TrEMBL record:
Xref: InterPro entries: Ribosomal_bL9, Ribosomal_bL9/RNase_H1_N, Ribosomal_bL9_bac/chp, Ribosomal_bL9_C, Ribosomal_bL9_C_sf, Ribosomal_bL9_N, Ribosomal_bL9_N_sf
Family: Belongs to the bacterial ribosomal protein bL9 family.
UniProt keyword terms in alphabetical order: Coiled coil, Ribonucleoprotein, Ribosomal protein, RNA-binding, rRNA-binding
HAMAP family: Ribosomal_bL9 (MF_00503)
SUPFAM superfamilies membership: L9 N-domain-like, Ribosomal protein L9 C-domain
The encoding gene: rplI
Function field: Binds to the 23S rRNA.
Domain Ribosomal protein L9: 1-46
Entry keyword Nucleotidyltransferase: no
Coiled coil: 44-78
Protein name, per record: Large ribosomal subunit protein bL9
Organism encoding this protein: Faecalicoccus acidiformans
GO cellular component, one term: ribosome
Domain Large ribosomal subunit protein bL9 C-terminal positions: 63-146
Gene3D superfamilies: Ribosomal protein L9, C-terminal domain, Ribosomal protein L9, N-terminal domain
Length: 149
């Protein structure tokens, strides 16, 4: 029996996938637990419409991410850190501080998407990457750290 999966199921398939399973498994397990619906011309038509709508939304999200990327490329975030006599830096700039600085400038970026291997703890310019859209659109934030006077 052909079914359209409504959720991801281990070792069976992914959501919105059309698969062939035994009649008993489809009726007694998948359909009964609302994990799948029977495959018909009507259900296939609805699925195609949903997939087209989802693709359009994804396209729009990607376009918005491209616009945000262009804005981020032009920005330069300024931070200051205390330094010692021999140029030793005290403290560091974390993703939380970068996120807050972006919010202060009106940019809404998920803190978890800011890729920073280690907190910025050196003076000068550092480029920080931000995943704006599923690894396909990567923006760069220019972070400048100067000495506190």
């Amino acid at each position: 029996m052909k079914v359209i999966l409504l959720k991801d199921i281990k070792k069976v398939g992914k959501k919105d996938e059309v698969i062939e399973v035994s009649d008993g498994y489809a009726r007694n397990y998948l359909i009964k637990r609302n994990l799948a619906i029977a495959y018909t011309k009507g259900s296939q038509k609805v699925l195609n419409e949903q997939l087209a709508q989802k693709a359009e939304e994804e396209k729009q999200l990607k376009a918005e991410a491209e616009v945000l990327k262009a804005k981020l490329e032009k920005m330069r975030l300024e931070f200051t850190l205390s330094t010692g006599k021999e140029g030793q830096v005290f403290g560091s700039i974390s993703t939380k501080q970068i996120h807050q600085a972006l919010l202060n400038q009106g940019m809404e970026v998920d803190k978890r998407k800011i890729h920073l291997d280690a907190p910025v703890s050196s003076l000068g310019m550092t480029n920080v990457e931000v995943d704006l859209y599923k690894g396909q659109v990567i923006g760069t934030i220019h972070v400048h750290v100067s000495e506190k006077r």
